[in-house]
Amino acid sequence: MTQGPDNNLLLASQPIFDRADNVRGVELLYRNDQGLSALDVGEDHATAEVVYQLCTAISQKTLHYRAPAFLNVSADLLMARHFLPVSPAHVVIELVERITPTPALVEAVSRLHQQGFRFALDDFAFAPEWDPLLPFASYIKIDIQVSSLAEARAYRERFAHLEATWIAERIETREERDAYLELGFELFQGYFYARPAPVYGKKIPPATLQATHLLKELCRSEPDIGEVIRLIQADPELAIKLIRIVNSAYYHPLMPIGSIQDAVTHLGFRQLSSWVTLFGLLGNAPSAYAELALTRAKACELLAQRDQLNSQDAYFIGLLSTAELLLGIPREEFLSCLELEPATSDAILRREGVYGNVLQCIEGTERQFAMRQMAPYDGNSCLFDIYQQAHHQANELLTALTSTS
Asked: Residue 17 gets which letter from DSSP?
């Protein structure tokens, strides 16, 4: 994506090529609009920012090569319980020499490897303390500006038993490429092929990313209530908002609810999904967009009730259909983070199925409502009444949301 007034510098990408000059990967590198380096902002911050952009704003753009994204990951993030909310098929985790291979880190790498994540050993010194990580290495990267050709040959002979692909990085000339090609290296990266290219795009607010993690769990066929509670507790602001909303006049609880578990039980997974989506999507949205989003969701809910469909599913679909309007990014990119059921995605993206038809009907009524025009026959009049009722309820809901801020 090119730079524009509404786009931010997200990071840079540099492709990795095979022996036939086909792209087989792309390394993601930290960049920001202020020109600060990863060392300036700190490794943990740089890692988190690159992972954040991979998982949100640019997940589709960086994977257009149909090849995995290589990224440096700090030790702290590696050992975090919720590491990457993306498919292991999409990434290769680079373990760089400055990481200390402690038992805890080795255990974290082992756990992630069992989940299907692949690892690249990058610029490491082939020291004995790294031996426990060798079985998990799918790639070994050699910086040819640091290691000589003779050293690279010795490394390959010493570790020939490993089932790993060898990458020569920082290739700057054809002569260097040819030498490592002859040595048997399979992949190549460096200025000879391509310089890092800036990637621009729309950044998703952090609150939306946290909501996305929670929504992924809530959208499973059988959500783990313990995991749902843990994710809510990891975001104190979200936890406070949920406690407030479940105790508000909107729900009229018989007794005050003071725990996350009671709030989850009281709301149920589907209503909780809707509230999490609301807080995640509407946090930075203009009020006019928020009103439209809530009205569309409520109208889908009311129409589904009339047609004896699942009203909560319709509400959820109507709300998620506004992601592009609220976030300023293609809806496909946001929905890809959630891994929704195919029927839900088809309803939102292609207006297919019974819920896609509900959404399509409401969107048509929405446009006519905005123009204050309506055909006189009963079917449309009924839809118009539903939309007006939804508009009124959405304003009430916005008032409830405002009270939690």
From this structure: E
The structure tokens listed for 222 are: 């059988």
Token digits of residue 101: 């291979």
CB proximity list for 162: less than 8 A, separation 6 or greater = 134, 137, 140
Q: pLDDT (tens digit, 9 = 90+) per residue, 52-98? A: 666 654 444 444 557 888 988 878 778 765 555 567 888 899 988 77
Question: If you ran DSSP here, which 8-state letter would residue 131 be given?
Answer: G
Q: Which residues pair with 127 in a beta bridge?
A: none
Which DSSP state fits 68?
Answer: P
3-state DSSP helix/strand/coil % of the chain, to nearest 5: 55, 15, 30
**Beta-carbon contacts of residue 153 (< 8 Å; ≥ 6 apart):** 183
Q: At 101, is the secondary structure helix, strand, or coil?
A: coil
The interaxial angle of helices 342-350 and 353-371, nearest 10 deg, is 30
Angstrom distance (rounded) from CA 43 to CA 47: 6
Query: Are 183 and 156 within 8 A, CB to CB?
Result: yes
Distances (CA, A) of 87 to 90, 118, 235, 362, 365: 6, 11, 23, 34, 38
pLDDT digits (tens, 9 = 90+) for 174-227: 999 999 999 999 999 999 999 998 877 666 666 666 777 787 788 777 888 998
Q: How many CA atoms lie within 13 A of 339 on its CB side?
A: 11
Distances (CA, A) of 242 to 279, 297, 326, 403: 9, 19, 21, 11
Residue type, 304: A
Helix runs in 283-352, H state only: 287-306, 311-320, 323-327, 331-336, 342-350
Q: Which of 8, 99, 115, 103 is nearest to 52 (CA)?
A: 8
Question: What's the confidence (pLDDT) of residue 263?
Answer: 86
**C-alpha to C-alpha distance for 89 and 68, rounded to whole angstroms:** 7
Helix, coil or strand: residue 115: coil
pLDDT of residue 253: 67
